[in-house]
C-alpha cells in the first residue's frame, strides 16, 4: 500500500530547529483542528494520558486527516502512542497510515523500549509503503530509572532525534511535591539536558502544566539559561511564548555580532582575548556568539 504523495513529499522542519512541542488531545476534533493556530513547531496527537481508552478508536480514525492538515499548515507532525505492551500497537497500526514525522513513546525506562518501537515502526513503514527510516522517534523519560539509563535510550536507534522529559509522571516517580516554580525538578531537568547533549540528540524540556502564562515564560527562561533549545507544552497559548523566548532576540544577535567582530579583530592583532562592555571575551564566548548568530539565521530561514 502506497501513501498519498502529500503525506511524505514535504521535508519537515529539522528537529534541532523545533522550539515548541505541543501535546493535543487525541480525540478532541476541535483541539486538533485549531492546533496549527497555536504556532507550535511540532504538533503531537496525544493518544495516551489525554485520550481515555474509550476514545482511542476515535482518535486513531482522526489521525490521517489531521496529519494532512497539520502538514499543510507547516507543522512537524508527531504522535504519542501508548506503551506498546498496552494499546501502542493498535495506535501504530492506525497512525502510521498518516506518515507521522515523529513517533513519541511514553514511559521509556530502558533501551529495549526504543528497540521494540523501532522494529514496529519499520514493519509499518514497509506495510504502508513509506520510505524506510523516515519516521523519527522521541522517547519520553518519565522516571528515575529512565533518567539514569538515558545514554542507552538515546543510542538505541538511529531514528532517535531527541528525548523528552516529563513533569507530572517524573515528579510522581520521585515522590516530589509539585509546585508552579518547578524547583522539585531542577536537578532532573539539568541532568537530562547534559545527558542529551552528550548523546547528541535534542533535549525537549518538560511541559509547564499550569495555565499561568507568566509561569510558562519563567520556566522557559530557566530552560534557556541552562542551554535548552526546545520545550514541550500542553496549553495552546504557551507555544508562542516558548517560540519567542527560544528564538534569539534582535538585541542578542546584535550583541553576538559585536562580540564576534571584536574577537576576530583581536585575534588578527595576535591577542588571545578582548574586552567587550566590561567582560573578557575568550574563545568559548566567541563560539557561543557564533552559534547564536547561526541559530537565528537558521530559524529565520524556516519561519
From TrEMBL:
Coiled coil: none annotated. Keywords: Lyase, Magnesium, Metal-binding. Substrate binds at residues 80, 142. Mg(2+) binds at residues 142, 169. Its cofactor is Mg(2+). Residues 19-234 form the HpcH/HpaI aldolase/citrate lyase domain. The keyword Metal-binding applies. It comes from the Bacteria. One of its GO terms (biological process) is oxaloacetate metabolic process. The keyword Magnesium applies. InterPro entries: Aldolase/citrate-lyase_domain (IPR005000), Citrate_lyase_beta/mcl1/mcl2 (IPR011206), Pyrv/PenolPyrv_kinase-like_dom (IPR015813), Pyrv_kinase-like_dom_sf (IPR040442). It holds the Pfam family HpcH_HpaI. One of its GO terms (molecular function) is magnesium ion binding. Belongs to the HpcH/HpaI aldolase family. This is CoA ester lyase.
Amino acid at each position: 500500500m502506497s501513501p498519498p504523495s502529500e503525506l511524505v513529499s514535504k521535508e519537515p522542519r529539522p528537529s534541532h530547529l523545533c522550539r515548541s512541542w505541543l501535546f493535543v488531545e487525541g480525540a478532541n476534533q476541535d483541539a486538533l483542528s485549531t492546533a496549527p493556530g497555536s504556532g507550535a513547531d511540532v504538533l503531537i496527537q496525544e493518544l495516551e494520558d489525554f485520550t481515555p481508552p474509550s476514545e482511542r478508536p476515535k482518535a486513531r480514525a482522526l489521525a490521517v486527516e489531521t496529519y494532512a492538515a497539520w502538514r499543510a499548515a507547516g507543522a512537524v507532525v508527531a504522535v504519542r502512542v501508548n506503551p506498546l505492551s498496552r494499546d501502542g500497537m493498535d495506535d501504530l497500526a492506525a497512525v502510521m497510515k498518516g506518515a507521522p514525522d515523529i513517533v513519541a513513546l511514553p514511559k521509556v525506562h530502558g533501551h529495549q523500549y526504543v528497540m521494540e518501537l523501532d522494529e514496529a515502526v519499520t514493519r509499518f513503514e514497509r506495510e504502508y509503503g513509506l520510505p524506510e527510516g523516515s519516521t523519527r522517534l522521541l522517547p519520553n523519560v518519565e522516571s528515575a530509572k529512565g533518567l539514569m539509563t538515558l545514554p542507552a535510550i538515546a543510542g538505541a536507534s538511529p531514528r532517535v532525534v531527541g528525548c523528552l522529559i516529563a513533569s507530572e509522571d517524573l515528579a510522581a516517580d520521585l515522590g516530589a511535591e509539585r509546585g508552579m516554580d518547578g524547583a522539585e525538578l531542577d536537578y532532573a531537568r539539568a541532568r537530562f539536558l547534559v545527558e542529551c547533549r552528550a548523546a547528541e540528540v535534542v533535549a525537549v524540556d518538560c511541559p509547564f502544566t499550569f495555565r499561568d502564562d507568566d509561569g510558562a515564560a519563567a520556566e522557559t527562561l530557566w530552560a534557556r539559561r541552562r542551554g535548552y533549545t526546545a520545550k514541550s507544552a500542553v496549553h495552546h497559548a504557551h507555544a508562542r511564548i516558548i517560540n519567542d523566548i527560544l528564538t534569539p532576540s534582535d538585541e542578542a544577535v546584535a550583541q553576538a555580532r559585536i562580540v564576534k567582530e571584536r574577537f576576530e579583530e583581536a585575534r588578527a592583532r595576535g591577542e588571545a582575548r578582548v574586552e567587550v562592555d566590561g567582560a573578557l571575551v575568550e574563545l568559548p564566548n566567541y563560539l557561543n556568539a557564533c552559534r547564536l548568530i547561526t541559530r537565528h539565521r537558521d530559524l529565520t530561514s524556516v519561519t
